[in-house]
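Lab channel / #folding
Pinned by the channel admin:
"Please post every new chain as: sequence first, then the structure tokens as a reply. Keep commentary short and put observations after the output so the thread stays searchable."

First post following the new format, from NK:
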Amino acid sequence: MPNAPVKAAWLSALTLTASGLLACTAPAPSAPAQGPAASDAATSQPAQPKVNRLVMGLVTPSGESNNPRHTSQTTMWQIKPMYEYLAGMDIDGKMAPQLATEWGLEGDGTGYRYKLRKGVQFHNNAGEFTAKDVVHSWKDLVLPDSLGGYQVALIRDNVETVEAVNDYEVFVRLKKKNADVPYVISEFQGGFEIMSKADYDKVGHDPSMTESPIAGTGPYQFKSRQQGANVVYARTPFKQWRATPDFPEFEFRWMKEASTRQAALLANEVHITSLPEDLLQQAQKQNFRVIKGRVPALRTFLLPRCCFFTDPKDFSKGYLPTDSPMTDVRFRKAMNKAIDRDALNKAFFNGKGELMIVDPLHSTRPGWDPSLAEKFKTEYGYDQAAAKKLLADAGKTGAKIQLLQQPVSGFAGAEDMFEAIAGMWRQAGIDVEILTPDPATITTVNRQLGYRNHVSVAATSAGQLVSTFYHSTMETRGSKLEDADIQKVIDELFVTLDERKSADLWRQLGQVIFDKHQIIPLFWLPAEAVVNPAIVGDYQWPGAISGTWTHVENIKAAK
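Reply from TO:
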């Protein structure tokens, strides 16, 4: 049996205790934490809303599912209203107790003990939440046919077993040290949504798109889904332990076109949405209100997709065949130098964007190196003449790349900005073809490593460690340029539990990504929701989780 549990300090216990047991030291917005009991949100009475169903209009997710293990970190927001986690994220981006009241890292760093909250009820009359539901949720997540990406791969590779010590205590035993496990288990990243074993046993199979998902414990419970159109939730008929939403029903409605979302907002068909900057300003002039997420995490950048190892476990075997010009760092530097980021910021974000120097580092995060910001203008700054010379020196003037133009749920102006960037690249001498595949096609080809001369957009609110997904050989592999030097630092980061050592590794990672032009950095952006102030009084949410649109139980009715 593992050693006795250790209760870590509230918010950031980063030291070795006298007993030799470690508290979690994973570098992220906040270390895994233990703290006070649930807030008094569940005891407050909801306001009387002016509509029974609150409707949020958003871009259609790239994949839809009623099963958590078939959603990726960027698409699982669609099911978050009905599920909870062992550890949650509060509105200020800090880890906080949720279905677990406390937890701690034990022994040599290969195990976490979680104490579970008592008296929490599942939807669908599925009974009380206990340790058996945590074990079931883990076993379901790692089934061979799971379609989830990073979170499934990380849990499979690093968690040996999840053991029920008793009804209200579980031990997560690791195969090896991994600094990101507690974040994947938590609401920070998602993927380890807690589902009812009793409800699953009753249903006897995975839910289809026309069936109700397996019961969760969240403030909302599932009501209906129309694939390609919407998903609807209803407030729990019993007093949920943590929060009582103001609105009896909540709907995510899929609306690909920004103009459609704007029209629906004006017609009071949706009450909260995401709009590109030009339409957002129009909405403000018509007295609609903009509410921002509380944590700076939403950002956008471009990903070259060209260079994938033949064997990600043996770099000596080289890369899969590709004739992409992006294999040459001079070409990638030319792509960066050809982009007028100031013009993009003004045109698409009204100057709100903060220049990204290198993902996932920021001046507020561990490992930030201010010298990279000083070098940015020379190495990445807009200079069409320099871009043309780089292409000529590389013998790649007129070389062709393909741009995957796609809507992004967390970034309303992605498609229009693509057009502008393509024009800048053409001006420098790059032949750009714009493709518009549907999301399902992108997912399929991506998993097959079929994009080998392409560029796509990333819009994410992911935390620092999980963001290495965009730079490594982790699932899903086809969405980035792979590099042995970058992967070496990332591998070390994932097994480093010391805060100071982690910060040094982050500096190393930032430098190598910067020098190799592995991505095309653009901006850190505010997460902004446009609301009808006659219906919505407030919306307090972090905006710091992949998919952006979370904590919908916090949306308050206008008084």
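NK: Residues 499-516 form the longest helix (18 residues).
TO: also worth noting, Residues 1-43 have pLDDT under 50 and may be disordered.
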